[in-house]
Amino acid sequence: MLRSRRLGVVMRSKQQAQANAARHVAADDWEATFRQMALYDFATDVNIGFVLAYFRSFAVPQISEALLATGEITQRPGKRSTDTGIVVYEIITHGFDSERGRTMVSLLRRVHAGVPGTDDDFLYVLISLLIAPLRWLDSHGWRAVEPTERAAAHRFFFELGQRIGLEIIPSSYDEAAVFFDDYEASHVAPSAAGIALTTSALPAFTIKLPYLVRRWDREILGALIGDVRVSVALGLPSPARGLTAAVRALLWVRNLRTAHSAPSELPVFASGAATTIYPTGYLLSEIGPPESSR
Ligand code: HEM
What we know:
By secondary structure, the chain is an all-alpha fold. It is 66% helix and 0% strand.
């Protein structure tokens, strides 16, 4: 266990604990529990995990080749990564049974119709959205993830998988983790497609880094991924020990501050809000690849 996480657990202030209790959601309300995690309590970390999952899928040649073939990531990398985030956060924010949630699930079904890939490939991409954020939290989160939260996160992606038509989905977080590791052990490999996608998608990652460290964007992405096999597959340099240590130190300071500060009252995602890609906000009909390629 990393020191930062231990410290985060120990340092959770009384004030923080009380505030969390006040916003308590029933343990069996998995949608609300995961919403609370992703939008408030672990907002930054869950977002980092989603970004890492996005890049990680490029480390599987058959997935990266299918993605490269449509040209969305190479020709419109900013829109593609923004839209991917919007789809997931719209569902988290409004719920599967809301109109916006249903619209996003329909979009997912539509854009994947005809995309080449095995059931395992689709399951892997789905499960990576669960495992990457949770493993990131286990290593770098400001406090430990509670069992009800882990179960809620699993339940959320189980539901998403069912709604987009996957037939076999691991029935617990632990089973999902085993599937994820087994799949990666036999599928992660370097490929020209994976390297091309990483190069195209990188600027959308770089822009989020503090200006002074942007020149080390590839090394930083490698350090955050924290898995040499995946970094090699993406054509990223192995992070120097000093850089990894610096990232850990920054996270340690961040965790210390988070543990002592008042919980965020504002969600990390606001539906329809302006972004670099949508300077005046967006309509759900604008999300996704052009109509002709769906
Ligand atoms: C079930 C797991 C998956 C989830 C949750 C998922 C998520 C997404 C999301 C959110 C989008 C919308 C992006 C946009 O709005 O532009 C998208 C589009 C797309 N996905 Fe997936 N994806 C999954 C599996 C896969 C797999 C396994 C492949 C390839 C083998 C794939 C290939 C594509 C393609 C080709 C598009 C259309 C946009 C483009 O051409 O890049 N997806 N996916």
